[in-house]
Amino acid sequence: MEIVEVFKQYLEHLFAGKRCEARELVMAAQDRGVAARELILNVVWPAMEQVARLFSDAQIDRITEHMATRINRMVADQLQGYMARKPKNGRRIVVTCGEGEAEELGAQMIADLFEVDGYHVWFLGAGVPADEVLQLVGRLEPDVLCLYGAQPKGVPGIRHLIDHVREINAVPNMQVLVAGGVFNRAEGLAEEVRADLFAHNAREALRLVEEHPIRIPQPDVPQPGRRRKRKRRSAKLETANAK
User: Fold this and answer.
1) What's the pLDDT score for residue 60?
2) Sorting pLDDT into bands at 50, 70 and 90, what band is 62?
3) pTM reported for the whole predicted model
4) CATH superfamily placement of domain 3-80
5) Annotation: CATH topology of 92-211
């Protein structure tokens, strides 16, 4: 069975709330030789995005969204133990996320994927105050701080956290990566909060961190047309918030 067909059947099971069938479908694909990593990236992750998109567009109700998200998380938990692991590379990443089950699921999968790629991973989940995140970052001195799945109302806090990290020079070479959530919907927002890297999804996050192992500080200077861009981005952010 092609991975596209697995994805199609998996979605059907998610929307029907069929936990056993969804799990068995994915495990059967793995038994046929599909790597657990590929199932995460090509089935579970896009299914998560599809569920979020349909719920946002009011094409599925909250019960369906809740059931599908929890089934997705169950399957992701099981696949994590089957992913092939690379040797530890000595690099560190702290992963936190916005409020919500879907946000925690996406952040968890990112944490799992970085872990099997050889990173030492600290996954905080949602709801950790910014000052505590800052304390942990200062203590661990990670190579990457990943902020996943922010909601529009959380953007000012993210900007404040990044500004504070830079102002006190807590970890000068640490990359700040933002991914998913409102950053996918509001063009240029990652730049405005002064993130070093922006990824739409887990695959892109892994690639960007691999391709940019060293932070290159960006000067915080006004750019031509920046005020107009901010107005447009603000409008996009309001639109994203309305969804």
Assistant:
1) 97
2) very high
3) 0.87
4) Methionine synthase domain (1.10.1240.10)
5) Rossmann fold (3.40.50)
